[in-house]
Structure formats: C-alpha cells, structure tokens
Structures
1.
Amino acid sequence: MKVGVLGSGDVAKVLAAGFLKHGHSVMIGTRERSKLEKWASENPPARAGSFSEAAAFAEVVVLAVKGTAASSALHLASAPNLAGKPVIDATNPIADLPPVNGVLQFFTGLDESLMERLQGEFPEARFVKAFNSVGNARMIDPQFAGGRPTMFICGNDERARGIVAELLDQLGWETADMGKAEAARAIEPLCMLWCIPGFTRNEWSHAFKLLK
Ligand SMILES: NC(=O)c1ccc[n+]([C@@H]2O[C@H](COP(=O)([O-])OP(=O)(O)OC[C@H]3O[C@@H](n4cnc5c(N)ncnc54)[C@H](OP(=O)(O)O)[C@@H]3O)[C@@H](O)[C@H]2O)c1
C-alpha cells in the first residue's frame, strides 16, 4: 500500500522504515523538509515532503506527531487528503507538564480521548488508534520470549480497522480490536501505564499481551 506518515520524530521514522521494510511505498511528511532529508537519503525509495504531500500520496495515513499538535498537523495535511482513508493514530494526549511519580499527565479527561476529538474534527477520515501503547524501539517486528505482543486498536470504521489489523499482522503484532472510537478512552491511557516502569526504573522495552 501507499503509506503516508505525518511526522519527523522517532515514531514517524521507525514506522516509515517498518512499512518500507515490509514492502509498502512510503512518503513521510513534516513542516520542515530539511529535518527528513538525511532519513530519506538513508531509506530509499521513501520520499520526504510536506504533511499535505504525504497525506495526498497515501492510501493509508499514519499520524505520528506531538499530541498537542495533532489537530494542527492534520489541518496542514488538509481534510480532503484524509477523506475516506484509514488514519492510523499513534498519538497520545500528553500535556506539556512533567510526570507525577512516573505517571504522565494528559490534557484529556477519562470520558473523552484525543482520537475522538480528531474524528469529530475530521469526520471524513477513518481514524484507527494503534501503536500508541508501546515504545518505538518495539514497534516493528517485536521479539519477545512470550510470543507476539498485542496491539489494542479501535475506530469507528470496521473496514479501516480490518486494514490496520492486516498491517499489524505483517509488522509482527496480534491485534485486539476494541471496537468504536470511544475505546480510545481506555487505549490512550495504556501509554501512561507503559511509561511508568520507564520513568521509575528506566525499563522501556516491554509490551502488552492480552491472554485469553
Ligand atoms: N516516542 C515513542 O516511543 C512513542 C511511542 C508511542 C506513541 N508515541 C506518540 O507518538 C507521537 C510522536 O512521538 P515522537 O516522540 O516521535 O515525536 P514528538 O516529538 O512527540 O512529535 C514530533 C512531531 O510533532 C510535530 N509537531 C510539533 N509541534 C507541531 C505543531 N505546532 N504543528 C504541527 N506539527 C507539530 C513535528 O512536526 P515537524 O516535523 O514539522 O517538526 C514532528 O513531526 C506522540 O503523540 C507520542 O505521544 C510516542
């Protein structure tokens, strides 16, 4: 598939390289193309462009920007470039405040989520929450003695969730489909839980698994 990744941080670069490794065509987008020139030269045939060029290129969009900037980045990507497309939302609503005893502070409350806000703002896009509850070092082909870790996903469009589940399977994950967008209220805080061992014990390499 043609994957358009919005972002120039570690998550964007890791996911872009991962989709490339697994045979997809990739364009990565930023406000400042110079930030990605080195990455693009090291990852041919991936290309770097603006947010809107990456979104226009995409059959599947990946949103990998700072949570507080997610709406702005999507506006720069432009709603018509997102319409009808799965948008894999890896963001977390982390506030610009320090963690409290290792617990991140969010700018959302318990009865809402960043992804629902974005879905409300961009109704034609088909948001699917994924990749928000694991560190970027483990996002692609994660290897654990306990087998494949679980990626919790959700989003209003069933077909988009199916596409994302297929992509996750290629990238080495099992998927736990939690249904509609409101499930992001539970999936986004998994990021808080995931980060506690990191901030308190410098352990950053775990992932979640759902046992049945
Ligand atoms: N780090 C991890 O391992 C990890 C794991 C899971 C989920 N996440 C989530 O993934 C997302 C990306 O994390 P990250 O650490 O890779 O990068 P980040 O530092 O959180 O975000 C960098 C990106 O945000 C964009 N950005 C910042 N301010 C902006 C603004 N005012 N308007 C538009 N875009 C703006 C930047 O755009 P430019 O390219 O134009 O500078 C850049 O692409 C975050 O939401 C994070 O919570 C991170």
2.
Amino acid sequence: MNARTDTGEAGFRPASRIAAIGVSRILQIGARAAAMKRQGRPVIILGAGEPDFDTPDFVKQAAKAAIDAGDTKYTALDGTPALKQAIARKFERENGVAYTPDEITVSTGAKQILFNAFMATLNEGDEVVIPTPYWTSYSDIVAVAGGKAVLVPCSAQAGFRLTAAQLEAAITPKTRWVLLNSPSNPSGAAYGEADYRPLLDVLMRHPHVWLMVDDIYEHIVYDDFRFVTPAAIEPRLKERTLTINGGSKAYAMTGWRIGYAGGPKPLIKVMAVIQSQSTSCPSSVSQAAALAALDGPQDFLGERRDSFRRRRDLVVGALNAIDGISCRVPEGAFYTFADCAGLLGRATPSGTVIASDDDFADYLLEEAEVAVVPGSAFGLSPFFRISYATGEAELTEAMNRIAAACARLV
Ligand SMILES: Cc1ncc(COP(=O)(O)O)c(C=O)c1O
C-alpha cells in the first residue's frame, strides 16, 4: 500500500515527495494484532521498538520540578545551553569525543535529528549508503528529503555488518552520506573498533562522503562487547561525522521525545534552520528531564542491561531449538533477527505454503497469536525480527507458541 492508493478521495492528491513511501509494515502488523486483541484473542506482540521499563523516578522528578519552576516556554532553538553542556559532558565521559555546545543539536527524538540532517544536506538524487537490514525510517526520510537510498545487503554470515569492499563499491560521486547504526535495529549486530576501522579507512579515501552514525542503542550491549563511536576511533573523520544519540532507549524515555547529535558547526547550523521551521524547539520539560538523565546516576543501566541479556538468551536459545530457524547471537539492542529460510516451502495445517517471511509472520500471527515483523520490512529476507523488550513469562509463552506453530508445518 502506498500513499497514493491510500488516499483515493475525490480531488485529493498527496505531494509527490511522499507518493513512494509505504505505510510501515510494522504499523500494519501492530494494527492487525491490536484489532485481534480487541476481539478478545490473546495476542502477544513482539513488535515494539521501546524498552518495557519505566522512565527512572529521578528523571520524572526533574521534569515535575521544571514545570513547577515555570520552565514551560519556548527554549533556545536547538536545545537549552544547560542541556547542550550536559550532552558535551556525556560525549566526553562516555565516548571520549570533545564537542563544544555549538557543535551539539537537540531535537524531538533522534528521528528528528535524522530528518533535520537529511533535509538540510540532500539535493535531489544525492545518495545515502544504508546497510541492510536497516531501520525502516532511514530510507523513507532520505526519500522525503529527495535523496536516494543505496541499500547494501549485509548477510548473517558477515554478522549483518557492512564490509569495506561493499562500502567501496557502493560509493559514487553522488554519495553524500553513509549511515551506520550500531547496535542495530533490527539485527542487534554491533560494530566493534576492529569492525569500524576498515570502513573508516575507506571513508578517509573519499573526502566527499560524510558519515552519520546512529548510536541510540549504545547502552544496550552484552557480554564483553565494547561500544565505540567512529569519531573517537578516527578523529580526522570527526569533521564530517554526525554522531546521533538520544534518551529513548537508554533511559526508557520514548515518549519524552529527546534526541541529540554532535557534529561540525556548519552542519549543526543548517540543521537548526530546518528545526526552526518545523518544531521551533524540543519540549522544555523534556529537555529538563533529559538533562537529569544524562547528569544523574547511571547504575540502573547495568541492571536493565542484565535483564535484557537474560531475555536475549531466552529468545535466541528457543529460536535455535526450532528446526528450520537459525539465529545469530546479537551483540546489542533488544531485537533478534532470525533466519527462517529453512521453513520456506513447508505447508501450514490448512495447506497454505509458506513462501516468504511475510507468509511466516502472517502464519505466526494467525496460528500462534504472536506478532513478529518480517525481514522484508527491514529490506532483508527471509528473516523475522522479535523485540524482546517484554516480560520473561510472556516471552516464554510466545516462544512456546512459535515452536508449536513451527512443528505443525510440514
Ligand atoms: C535505530 C533507531 N534510531 C532511532 C530511533 C528513533 O528514536 P527516537 O525515539 O529518539 O526518535 C529508533 C526507534 O525505534 C531506532 O530504532
């Protein structure tokens, strides 16, 4: 379905810039699952892209205090000076990267950071290299901004990571940006320093290409994986790198809508121009909350990480025990991206053949009453994504149902 077919009312014509953008498959599945739930069916939804934890109390308190102090007006366009300083401290403390406040921008979520950056830099036909599987909004935002997403498939065997040879081959004179996301939504794969180094070496040879990194899952990494951001690895690239982060995943602040980025001053300035004509500034109260989150105690992050790791192990173990499914162990985020190639060609009890990951996700929703998202939604098939940001009891029940449904395929 796309916007054109979706709006067939007489006389109504959507702008051509959104004509090619589909209604998100994730939203479609979520809507179907919600409708089934309303009919009383016990659907378990493993599609959500947000932590099931609550925003920490000290963050909520800071927001209440901000309201009481009258902190309820427009703020500086791209973030209060106090929040920008806290972000500068965060980049220095956690990433070893020095950004001055005028190299920092704050927006209504990391999504608006991406939107501002692409709107402010892409001319018609400019290319953005995006490794697949990718978070669906990346290609859609690039399209809205008039750019062209150059999707590069990254196999499970390669850890869903882009290789230097792939990057080299994807770069053309029209390439404006390379967009990397570590840990990744949807694969959970992450780039360590040794994975990044060869890619950064390629970029050093192509000075017209800028690097955008989405570090929003930075704090959700497991085992002995060491998170690192490219601007820290290769300081010479910092002058053409936009380092994106935000409060949504680390601090369970999805509804507060605060994202931020560090980057070169001229870029930060033009991003503010876009923001000035869209949202004017991020919410004043949310900025006060984000400031508290960044400057406050960070010990709860470890507890939450341990809880996510237990759930990752539960899901990966259960998936790999199913004949026809194989799942690599993700380094981070709260998603698994499992291969279901071994199930294709099998038939459901009603005789329908599972021909694709879309069919498999439909089957799981109807037969197992578990909502997962097919890999096609993220540009790589045949896979399916599970978000394990759900209680362990519900996850166990979901995995039992998936195993039983798979066992019924012949
Ligand atoms: C990879 C990635 N980047 C950015 C975002 C958006 O985050 P925010 O809530 O800050 O807009 C998401 C949300 O799902 C995401 O998965």
